[in-house]
């Protein structure tokens, strides 16, 4: 370590603080606990930027403990930049760092920075340390490649070593007299300041040891997380950062150095990748934005752009070059179709591949579904299927459509989804090839095919038997022919040899299962097998109720119900029902491969498929069951991001209402109309209005906004505070006691994990064990918020109250309007809620006529024949 004066302050850590009571103590402690003499050589300047939580109290406690080292200042809220500028006025140290109040310094950071700065003092004004993410995101910062060794970086040579942050940088105090943070910017105020400073010497130091721990908050409330919905993030940063940095460079040195260009490309891409700008900015502002970006890119060399976008995982290259040179055009070039602008080739059609989600044969039709991902759009190309048979060649056009997360993009690569439905004849053999065809030039390209995990075929498991057809994938061609066990046997032996040759993960189990499958296939091929399940670890949902109905029907169908053997429901079901089998047993896995129907209240492969996560592509071609989704609850919200066709591929989806069924056709699920059936939930058949226990049931749903939060953060959330208050409301409890009502809380599964955080009392009972249906049947009144359990409860015409204290539910799109369609009052105030409960108790918890009429209008069937209808529809498949 360099020589030090005993009482000299070498480091001033300026910390802008705003409502950081959960984090600031960690930041302060990380400085105090450095392997550097804190008491004699370090000061912390805490600038409270108008906090209204306990930040001030925490800071003052540290000042009392370290009065000679820690200074605290309070100012009216003005933003991080103004707080940092305020702090600069009070620094006494030789080197200054601007640590964010929710980040931490690694313990050897100051010691390593001090030694390096002292040794290279005249060459540099800035020293940088690595950044490591923690909390919501973990791992290295993308720019940590700069820190392979401790050295002075010559930015004229290593111009691709950008420095954008001041929380990971240490700056000489003497140079800060000429620079300040721009208070008009929303984010990037540190990037422009530090890069103006770097223009002075065009060099800075990098120290490989030590570093900054950069917090990515679970609640996504940091400045970077929230700024994309602010116009200043776009127009303000464009003018105040990117254009300003270009103009400053031109005035300072007469040109824009490559390292400044690289900083601009690196940082501007995050702004360009934000599709929120198309909603945040109006048409005039978008034109202003595009013109401003075009001005900036006039000073950015193509070499710099290509250096940064060499691999381009963000797929932003086309957007950048079009903003620089103008719209791209499609050309023929060297037997290819290319997309280019100003002679810069942005994409080539022939380099891509098709990805298949679905390949199957049902009812004498071949179904193929997948996508092409490229910079080309559906207006540029067609996806076609070329069929060859004894009848000659035939070309089929694709149906085009979008999924919520797979669509054409304004800024990145576009998804072109395709869907083919081709009639087959059992006596014919076919060859199919998928091609992409240029609309302008007519050129077609047969691209390589890859199978995604949930496709019923893979590059290894490359054949499948569908009824009396066989699919075989070879040499990028799909062959269809009549079933032949001898051909199947030959292909299977080849697959087994490939597995033996390459020894992939889970190879031994795969060989065993596939060999058993091969031997049993002639005997099981025509057997009818239905497999039922709810969750792997539990039953008591639609699948169990349907299984109880049809398990004893003598229809020649072998029916099984599966769940984990150590589940609490396994013994219960085994005592009264036959063919209850343990999930993931050898028997269950073999039967799964031969099942005609997988019937469940959950549609995810990771729930249903015993081979999922165990190198499932090795089994892909063996699975050809139809998937029946009975649903876990009524789907009132748009969940197309989850329940889409491409990875669920449902053959039947059971609904209870015409309105619910219609919503599946309006949103981007992309199921055919005949997949959606209004039949009623099987479990509804066993709902009865017992109401003999006089109990009030409380069942709030979860909030994704508090997923992954720490316990101390959860208890500060509005959700927790409102629920905790209701659970312990003294007037509510007294009202129930006076009228001999029990209060039962049935926690959401995720609430159970944090149930100990809630206050408890002697009267309110938290029920973790009772079945949902028992609670519905025996309760008199339900209080919920947005949970679909209200549909079960209202089905038997019992009163429901929706306690929606705030608009904080994570699903925004819904066909269900609580005010006009709900089965009870919508209440936002806790006192009003208790008043309403009082009125219902006085009226013996009778549902009001208005809401009874809504129940009658919503549910198509209330005849307790739902199981019968569902069973009969499944048989038709």
From TrEMBL:
Keywords: Transferase
GO cellular component terms listed in the entry, alphabetical order: membrane
Pfam family name, one: Glycos_transf_2
Matches recorded under Gene3D superfamilies: 3.40.50.12580, Spore Coat Polysaccharide Biosynthesis Protein SpsA, Chain A
Taxonomy, superkingdom: Archaea
InterPro entries hit by this protein: Glycerophosphate_synth, Glyco_trans_2-like, Nucleotide-diphossugar_trans, TagF_C
Domain Glycosyltransferase 2-like: 12-169
Any one GO molecular function term: hexosyltransferase activity
Keyword Transferase: yes
The protein's name: CDP-glycerol glycerophosphotransferase, TagB/SpsB family
């Amino acid at each position: 370590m360099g020589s030090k004066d005993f009482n000299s302050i070498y480091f001033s850590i300026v910390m802008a603080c705003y409502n950081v009571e959960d984090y600031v103590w960690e930041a302060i402690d990380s400085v105090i606990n450095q392997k550097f003499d804190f008491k004699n050589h370090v000061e912390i300047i805490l600038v409270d930027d108008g906090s209204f939580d306990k930040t001030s109290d925490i800071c003052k406690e540290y000042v009392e403990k370290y009065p000679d080292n820690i200074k605290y200042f309070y100012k009216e809220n003005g933003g991080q930049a103004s707080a940092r500028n305020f702090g600069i006025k009070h620094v006494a140290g030789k080197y200054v760092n601007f640590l964010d109040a929710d980040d931490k310094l690694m313990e050897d950071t100051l010691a390593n920075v001090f030694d390096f700065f002292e040794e290279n003092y005249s060459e540099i004004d800035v020293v940088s340390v690595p950044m490591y993410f923690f909390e919501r995101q973990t791992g290295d910062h993308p720019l940590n490649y700069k820190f392979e060794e401790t050295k002075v970086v010559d930015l004229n040579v290593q111009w691709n070593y950008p420095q954008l942050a001041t929380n990971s940088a240490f700056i000489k105090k003497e140079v800060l007299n000429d620079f300040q943070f721009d208070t008009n910017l929303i984010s990037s105020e540190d990037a422009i300041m530090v890069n103006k400073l770097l223009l002075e010497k065009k060099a800075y130091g990098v120290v490989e040891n030590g570093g900054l721990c950069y917090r990515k908050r679970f609640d996504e409330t940091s400045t970077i997380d929230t700024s994309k919905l602010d116009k200043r993030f776009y127009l303000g940063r464009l003018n105040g950062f990117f254009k300003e940095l270009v103009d400053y460079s031109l005035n300072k040195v007469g040109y824009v150095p490559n390292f400044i260009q690289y900083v601009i490309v690196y940082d501007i891409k995050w702004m360009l990748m934000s599709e929120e700008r198309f909603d945040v900015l109006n048409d005039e502002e978008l034109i202003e934005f595009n013109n401003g970006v075009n001005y900036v890119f006039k000073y950015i060399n193509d070499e710099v752009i290509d250096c940064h976008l060499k691999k381009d995982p963000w797929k932003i290259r086309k957007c950048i070059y079009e903003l620089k040179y103008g719209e791209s055009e499609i050309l023929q070039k060297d037997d290819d179709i290319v997309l280019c602008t100003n002679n810069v080739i942005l994409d080539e059609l022939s380099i891509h591949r098709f990805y298949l989600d679905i390949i199957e044969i049902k009812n004498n039709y071949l179904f193929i579904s997948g996508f092409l991902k490229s910079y080309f759009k559906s207006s540029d190309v067609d996806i076609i299927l070329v069929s060859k048979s004894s009848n000659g060649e035939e070309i089929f056009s694709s149906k085009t459509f979008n999924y919520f997360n797979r669509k054409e993009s304004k800024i990145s690569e576009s998804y072109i989804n395709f869907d083919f439905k081709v009639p087959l004849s059992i006596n014919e053999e076919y060859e199919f090839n998928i091609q992409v065809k240029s609309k302008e030039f007519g050129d077609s390209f047969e691209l390589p095919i890859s199978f995604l995990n949930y496709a019923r075929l893979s590059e290894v498991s490359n054949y499948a038997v569908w009824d009396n057809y066989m699919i075989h994938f070879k040499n990028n061609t799909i062959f269809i022919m009549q079933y032949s066990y001898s051909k199947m046997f030959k292909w299977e032996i080849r697959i087994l040899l490939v597995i033996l040759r390459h020894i992939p993960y889970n190879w031994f189990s795969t060989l065993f299962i596939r060999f058993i499958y091969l031997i049993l296939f002639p005997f099981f091929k025509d057997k009818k097998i239905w497999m039922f399940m709810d969750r792997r670890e539990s039953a008591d949902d639609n699948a169990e109720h349907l299984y109880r109905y049809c398990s004893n029907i003598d229809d020649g169908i072998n029916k099984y119900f599966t769940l984990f053997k150590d589940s609490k429901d396994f013994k219960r079901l085994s005592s009264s029902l036959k063919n209850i089998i343990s999930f993931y047993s050898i028997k269950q896995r073999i039967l799964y491969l031969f099942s005609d129907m997988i019937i469940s209240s959950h549609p995810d492969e990771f729930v249903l498929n015993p081979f999922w996560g165990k190198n499932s592509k090795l089994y892909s071609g063996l699975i050809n069951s139809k998937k029946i989704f009975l649903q876990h609850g009524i789907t009132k919200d748009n969940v197309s991001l989850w329940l889409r066709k491409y990875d669920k591929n449902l053959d039947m989806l059971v609904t209870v209402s015409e309105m619910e069924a219609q919503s599946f056709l309006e949103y981007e699920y992309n199921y055919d109309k005949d997949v959606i059936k209004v039949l009623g939930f099987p479990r509804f058949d066993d709902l009865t209005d017992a109401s003999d226990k006089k109990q009030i049931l409380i069942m709030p749903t979860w909030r994704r906004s508090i997923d992954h939060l720490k316990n101390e953060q959860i208890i500060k959330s509005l959700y927790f505070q409102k629920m905790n208050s209701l659970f312990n409301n003294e007037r509510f409890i007294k009202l129930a006691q006076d009228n001999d009502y029990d209060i039962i809380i049935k926690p959401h599964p995720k609430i159970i994990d944090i149930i100990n955080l809630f206050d408890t009392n002697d009267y309110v009972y938290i029920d973790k064990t009772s079945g949902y249906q028992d609670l519905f049947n025996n309760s008199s009144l339900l209080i919920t918020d947005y949970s679909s359990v209200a549909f079960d409860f209202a089905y038997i015409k019992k009163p429901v109250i929706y306690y929606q204290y705030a608009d904080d539910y994570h699903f925004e799109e819904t066909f269900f309007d609580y005010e006009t369609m709900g089965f009870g009052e919508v209440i936002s105030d806790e006192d009003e809620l208790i008043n309403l409960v009082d009125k219902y108790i006085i009226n013996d918890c009778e549902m009001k006529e208005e809401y009874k009429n809504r129940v009658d209008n919503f549910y198509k069937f209330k005849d307790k024949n739902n199981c019968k209808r569902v069973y009969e529809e499944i048989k038709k498949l």
